[in-house]
Design a protein that fits this description.
By secondary structure, the chain is an alpha+beta fold. Helix content is about 25%, strand content about 35%. A hairpin with a 5-residue loop joins strand 3 and strand 4.
Amino acid sequence: ENSFEDFEVGTVMRHVRGKTMCEQDNVGITLQVLNTAEGHFNEHVMQQNSMGREGWNARLQFGGLTISMIIGMSMQDTGENALKELSLDKIRLKNPVFHGDTLYAFSEVLEKQDAGREDAGIVKFKHYGVNQDDKVVFEGERRVLIKRRPSR
């Protein structure tokens, strides 16, 4: 359980969990946000596309799902004492994610600053997502208001 004081600028964390992306991850959420792009749903087209792969895993995962999965995997180490999410920006989806790819998350502490209150401070993270081949699939920066340790 990391408090504001536990984060040091320059620290890079490899988060413990990984996630293999599957059919259920993509189809349900992608349809809920009314994204009907063929790259997510048309296996035939994607197998003929230079980006696609042969077999059952030629379809792309929805980028919003990649982002939320990487941020979600980082939360155990970067968000358990979060009081407020302040921003998520500089988002880059660097490489495609396909069904069957396994994602891993990393976070770097970029900055710490006073929040003008005694009980919390602001930490700025850079989050990275990589696939099983160590290709970066996501980068983004996140600012979080994080509780300080109680004074004694």
